[in-house]
Amino acid sequence: MDRLNGRFRGVVAAHAVSAYGNYLNLVALSLFSYQLTGNALGIGLLMALRLFSGLLAGLGAAALTARVGRRRVMIGADLAQAVAMAVIALATRTASVGLLAAVVVVLGAGNVFFTVALRSAIPVMVGQEARGRANGQLMTGRSLAMVAGFASAGPLIGIAGHGAAFAVNAASFLLSAATLLVLRPRTEEDAPAPPPEPGPEPESGSTPKARGLPRGWTTLPALLLGVILLRGADALASSSHNVALPVVAGLESPENPAAFMARFWAAWAVGTLLAHQALKRRPASWWEGRRGAVVYAVGTCAMSLFFVLAFTGPPPVAFMLIAALAGFADGATEIAHTSRLQAAPDAERGRLFALSSMAETSGFALGTVTAAAALELWPAIAVVGLFHGIAFCGALALLTHLARRAPDGRAAAPPAIETSRSPIP
Question: What pTM did the predictor assign?
Answer without folding.
Answer: 0.77
